[in-house]
Amino acid sequence: MPRIVAKEVLAPGIKKFVIEHPQIARKRQPGQFVIVRVHGEGERFPLTIADADPERGTITLVVQEVGHSTMEMGRKEPGEVILDVVGPLGRPTPIRRYGRVVCMGGGVGVAEIYPVSLALKEAGNEVIGIIGARTRELVIMEKEMRSATHQLIVCTDDGSYGVHGLVTKPLQEMIERKERIDHVFCIGPVPMMKAVAEVTRPVGIPTSVSLNPIMVDGTGMCGACRVTVGGTTRFACVDGPDFDAHQVDFDELMKRLAQYRNEEKLSLQRLHVGEEEPKCAARAAS
Amino acid sequence: MTKGVIPNKTPMPEQDPKERIRNFREVPLGYTEELAIQEALRCLQCKKPTCIAGCPVNIDIPGFIDLVAKGDFLGAARRIKATNLLPAVCGRVCPQEEQCERACVLSKKFESVAIGRLERFVADYERETGKIQYPKIPRRTGKRVAVVGSGPAGLTVAADLIQQGHDVTVFEALHALGGVLVYGIPEFRLPKSILEAEVNYLAALGVHFEPSYVIGKTESLDELLQRFDAVFLGLGAGLPHFMHVPGENLNGVYSANEYLTRSNLMRAYLFPEWDTPIKRGRNVAVIGGGNTAMDAVRTALRLGAENAYLIYRRSRAEMPARLEEIHHAEEEGVQFRMLEAPVRILGDENGWVKEIELISMQLGEPDESGRRRPVPVPGSEHRLAVDTVVVAIGQGANPLLISTTPGLRTNRWGYLEVNPETGETSLERVYAGGDIVRGGATVILAMGDGRRAARAIHERLR
Lengths: 286, 462
Ligand SMILES: Cc1cc2nc3c(=O)[nH]c(=O)nc-3n(C[C@H](O)[C@H](O)[C@H](O)COP(=O)(O)OP(=O)(O)OC[C@H]3O[C@@H](n4cnc5c(N)ncnc54)[C@H](O)[C@@H]3O)c2cc1C
Ligand SMILES: Cc1cc2nc3c(=O)[nH]c(=O)nc-3n(C[C@H](O)[C@H](O)[C@H](O)COP(=O)(O)OP(=O)(O)OC[C@H]3O[C@@H](n4cnc5c(N)ncnc54)[C@H](O)[C@@H]3O)c2cc1C
Ligand code: SF4
Ligand code: SF4
Ligand code: FES
Description:
By secondary structure, chain A is an alpha/beta fold. Chain A folds into 2 domains: 4-89, Beta Barrel (Elongation Factor Tu (Ef-tu), domain 3), CATH 2.40.30; 100-257, Nucleotide-binding domain of ferredoxin-NADP reductase (FNR) module (Rossmann fold, 3-Layer(aba) Sandwich), CATH 3.40.50. Chain A has 10 helices and 15 strands. Chain A has helices at residues 22-27, 68-74, 109-122, 142-147, 168-176, 190-200, 236-239, 250-257, 261-274, 279-285; strands spanning 4-11, 14-20, 33-37, 45-53, 58-64, 84-89, 100-106, 126-133, 151-156, 163-164, 183-187, 207-210, 226-229, 232-235, 242-244. A 7-stranded mixed β-sheet of chain A has the order 10-9-8-7-11-12-15, with helices on both faces. A 6-stranded antiparallel β-sheet of chain A has the order 1-2-5-4-3-6. In chain A, β3 (33-37) and β4 form a beta hairpin. Chain A is globular, with a radius of gyration of 19 Å. The two termini of chain A are 15 Å apart. Chain B is an alpha/beta fold. Chain B has 3 domains: 17-129, Alpha-helical ferredoxin (Fumarate Reductase Iron-sulfur Protein, Chain B, domain 2), CATH 1.10.1060.10; 144-238 and 397-461, FAD/NAD(P)-binding domain; 240-395, FAD/NAD(P)-binding domain. The A-B interface holds A 23-24, 27, 37, 41-44, 68-69, 83-89, 216-217, 219-224, 226-228, 233, 238, 252, 255-256, 258-260, 263-264, 266-267, 270 and B 173-175, 183, 211-214, 217-219, 238-240, 242, 244, 248-249, 251-252, 254-255, 257-258, 261-262, 266-267, 270-277, 279, 350-351, 398-400. One flavin-adenine dinucleotide binds next to β4, β5, α2, α3 and α9 of chain A.
């Protein structure tokens, strides 16, 4: 079973795991993800493969604790196993020579844009990175992103570090300066991806976003992950997760992501209550 | 010849409908030893038993029933297992009324012998008395076979080839083994423990299982062919079809696969003890008329629906579901709405389903399937208030592996083309069977395909 070999806290609530899985480490390509299940009664949920080391047979996952399942994963320590890790799933991001590209990541999305950025740089593109977070201490993987880009711009919403403002701000400025941009790749919260799409749409810069709908199997069997792109329904787990940002119905995606809001609250409450109860131990053992 | 025959099947005890719609436990409780013997004695032990030809794997039906009548239940189990690996499953889910039981001579004048119920009894008896016998396995041949997919087709191939002395590894994309039998068919119709027992049995025989392993992703078919002497593809037909009507991506609209996977595989009915949620709709519309639709609508009831509607565009007589399930659904209070089809689904401002618009249908001329084609009645649109819609209109071939494997020939619906005698695909050393070849079919047909392919693979490896 996939064993955790290293763990690091990157920022409050954002944790990096290095996990043994030689087969996935060997096969994965930038843009692909895995589905994990932490324990026997757990949910299946997707995480992007942030990095891999084929020689050591490990993959790196970066998890932001936003609810029950991600928090349970966050409690895992080196030496423990993740019950199921399946992948690499999804279509790889097409890596070729675009020319001059902008790679944008917001929040935990920085971990997801990192492998794409690195691969694009290695493929001979000039890569400008723009990463953002709410505040300074939530900026992650800045060092890695510096090595995966030719130039990196860091933004914080509150101005505590780097550019004061959203990631769209430096992008907008580049466009106003008439800088050449051949392609934009963007991964982050839905509102950010939507905003980026609106910035590049009027000037017709091809823009790819990596969508994060709710998934179950991740192999095209259930349709939970359906998104509307260019007026047609696509399954993000097998047709994506990358899509043309200018064709995506972000509003629908946002609504669909809120589908289980009440259940998520309940589930989270139980997790916190469970901390005081011995039941939790019984559960972890199963 | 029919003098003195008891005209009706011995009834099988069942959970009371009012009780059972509040739990996920199995509905039919099974025969007792006495009831089984009583039913077995109805069999005429025909000289020319027509029933055998009605069974796709040609179980020696009079043979095993005779053993039941004599009280030798374990002997009966062995007799069945000579041709059918999963009798506890088939006894429960085969469409017997179209297969073995339809071919039983009794069915001409009376009710047929309850072959399925007897098969189920015998298999359960064997499992529960813990006297499972392991066949002697011949010397290992050193040949290696990969089975992709752990549905009934794949499990049959694994069972047959391990018993021939080959090494067998089963790769499964999901974390649980059994294919539709674990993710699709609900607990109240096929308890998971039965499948677990069957899988454990195969593991004890030496079959190696690799769950959470997607061929075409984790490893390619080409790579498998380098490691294995032969590969069997039992991928199933797991791609859910949608109707392509407006509103289909609203919150609260599910494919039957998602709805059933959440409930069965992920045990969402136990939420929040188990982590996966499911919408517990009060007014649920399930679209379709097959086993999948029936499973979904009965699941909706058990999740607490006040109104569970089954919306089907043809009439009752054309519904493809097993008779027993239609009957059970009716007893449980499912509201059948025949000759209606969805036009669109309407939502509220937060993107949640609130109504479904339907149009009435009438039956016209027969179509290529021989069934009368439903045609919409102009101007008959009307609405039904619902908060959950489950689309169960059929499945297609999942392109995940096939589209990444050049050289695998498919027909125009995307299903694999195989030699019907051997199950061999257009790629050398690659075999296939079950739903990925037939389209949505049945458990027993998938098993029959597995058996045929296993025989051909064994021939090749000898
Ligand atoms: C292709 C893909 C790659 C992803 N990569 C990463 C990653 O590298 N790191 C990371 O931290 N997160 C990633 N996510 C998001 C991650 O899967 C969700 O945050 C996680 O499932 C939330 O589960 P939870 O139980 O902790 O929270 P919940 O309480 O269940 O949900 C919190 C919020 O997360 C969203 N969400 C819930 N379930 C899912 C789900 N199954 N899939 C997506 N979003 C969901 C909902 O909007 C919800 O409101 C990715 C999602 C996708 C689809
Ligand atoms: C809800 C429902 C109810 C049904 N009820 C009945 C019934 O009452 N009676 C009856 O006879 N039939 C019934 N059927 C039909 C029956 O279940 C199928 O015909 C049968 O399961 C087909 O078996 P199979 O082995 O071909 O594939 P499946 O059972 O579909 O199994 C295929 C398996 O392969 C796995 N897989 C696919 N691709 C890959 C890959 N690339 N790598 C690894 N693994 C992969 C899948 O995850 C799956 O587990 C029902 C079907 C459904 C959906
Ligand atoms: S396997 Fe199915 S068709 Fe064959 S005898 Fe049993 S119930 Fe009948
Ligand atoms: S046809 Fe019917 S009565 Fe005759 S042997 Fe078969 S099950 Fe018995
Ligand atoms: S997650 Fe099930 S089809 Fe994409």
